[in-house]
Predict the structure.
Amino acid sequence: MDNLYFQPEIETMERSSLETLQLKRLKESIGTALRSPFYSTRLGKLGITPDSIRTLGDLRRLPFTTKEDLRSNYPFGLVAVPADRVVRLHSSSGTTGNPTVICHSQHDLECWAGRVARCLYMVGLRNTDVFQNTSGYGMFTGGLGFQYGAELLGALTVPAAAGNTVRQIKFIRDFGTTAIHAIPSYAFRLYEVMREMGISPRTDTRLTTLVIGAEPHTEAQRRKIEEAFGVKAYNSFGMSEMSGPGVAFECPCQNGLHLWEDCYIMEIIDPETLEPLPDGEVGELVLTTLDREAMPLIRYRTRDLTRIIPGECPCGRTHRRIDRIKGRSDDMFIVKGVNIFPMQIEKILMQFRELGTNYLITVDTVNSNDEVMVEVELGDLFTDDYSQLQRLTRDITRQLKDEILVTPKVRLVDRGTLPQETGKAVRVKDLRKNK
Amino acid sequence: MTIKQLSVFLENKSGRLNEVLGILGQADIRIIAATVADTSEYGILRLITSDTAKAYEVLKANRVSAQQSDVVALTCNSTAAEFAEQMDYFTREGLSVEYMYCFSTGEKAFLILRTSDNAMVDAIARKYGLDIITEKELLSV
């Protein structure tokens, strides 16, 4: 009989046993970290040793690690093992200043692949599946991360890499691809091109599963993707600092992403006060690695905003779930004392059938008042009737006000005039002198 | 009897009208009549063209928000008195005109009318002997 779980003993472990395991691994991680130049100074200065940690709560006494720490100790200042143990590195794009580099030992790569395999198995993939990965390979972790994980699972894994959509579609057809990994905007693109080519994903392919991630998206966008392809689309969460994909993943319940707590300790903090927040409240995700030896990270501020979903999941996994990423704490802006995240605005806009998917939020000071302007492109549906257009603008304004507590100025604009929905489009322009 | 009209969303910014007309020009579309109505932020360009279906397709392919709708075309003498008389029939029958635009060739005027009820326009035309024209007739003006 087919098992529901890839690693049942870990995935359904009693909470108390899971926490005992976390504490044991946390002490080991701190012991390892202390061998790196960075942490030997940072933690050594505070007199922290593995024995300083008696309970999981003691973790809160340790300082945070930030992306700036990784940059200023570029490239190897956080490496905690001798050079002969390091077998691979991945790096972020480094568009501003030094890139961040993460080093891996053989053990780290095996753990990472195991996590990804666990995720893919969870959404129904088996060794008979054909998994096509449209992530960029190379320094980006979405390529090799999924490659090794899907191979460990035993699936035929197609390293199609990014771009060349017509060729992707040919592979999907020729190889009988059953599962695709893509960023949400690329999933839309694949569908568009299929449609132009007269190919129906429902009847002309063997697709059963989509894995989408690496780019924040709303529930409405996910449903649109599922409707287009006629298959389930599962949300994937990871980041290069935490190895890459496989940190958290949706189960078939599609209600939150199980974050693998045997590999990470998660905390949610208020990005302003840095104080921990209770389960259920939205804040910044902070992660500590538990099974990484080449480059452990202690209390790493991910800048991703989410919340821990309280309660147990019907799937039987005991690892707690995080909600879909609601944006970056860097993207958050404050208007009239209210914290606003672009995803809140996107969520509302996506509910209007008349609108397209591109939008731009501009914050500016007008007559010494902070004002929010939301420009959004019209979609295919267009009415020849002014009163309807005005009603649409009014409805959008009212619903946005209910969500963000500030009345924005809403403008309907021509299609194709705003930044395209690809990659990490700039959604917020803050023109205020005093932010 | 109705004819096809094309309505196009126009953001209020310099050059946008030219862009849209340029797209139609590339597709060899002829414009029979056109009007632009605007608010401070956007406008609606309404057009009668030589091939509305084709014009709609090329605009859509260029990601321009557009819509096809049915309007009625009437012809009458281009004197103000006769315009007034035509409008009076609609008022008398309680049918409100949402918008109207027209062009004339010498003594002859052509009125493009948008109402909430095209069937009622036909009835009024029959009752008062108004001269409704077909799309084909309009295109050959």
Summary: Chain A has two domains: 1-330, 333-430. Chain A touches chain B at residues 378-380, 382-386, 389-390, 411-417 (CB under 8 Å).
